[in-house]
Protein: Putative transposase YbfD/YdcC
Organism: Aporhodopirellula rubra
Amino acid sequence: MSTMLPVEAFAGAVRGHWGIENSCHWQLDVTFGEDQCRIRKGHGDENFSTLRRTALSLLKQEKTAKCGVKNKRLTAGWDDSYMEQVVFSS
């Protein structure tokens, strides 16, 4: 006996998944220019993707700066003390 998921519930679950996926990909592309990255050798593309996702998570968790993730990233690149705050804040 198999349990069937109603079509509407399945469609809602699929849309929810892709909504999250598209939102995350959009943020990575806008903030880090992920689509423009041309790293293809070895495991470099996977490694950099992991680094970008980790950086995105850390930047989203940082709440003291009242600006977007892209500006937080730029500020962290210019200001070492802010970079430490992003990386080491709990």
Q: What stands out?
A: The chain has one domain: 7-88.
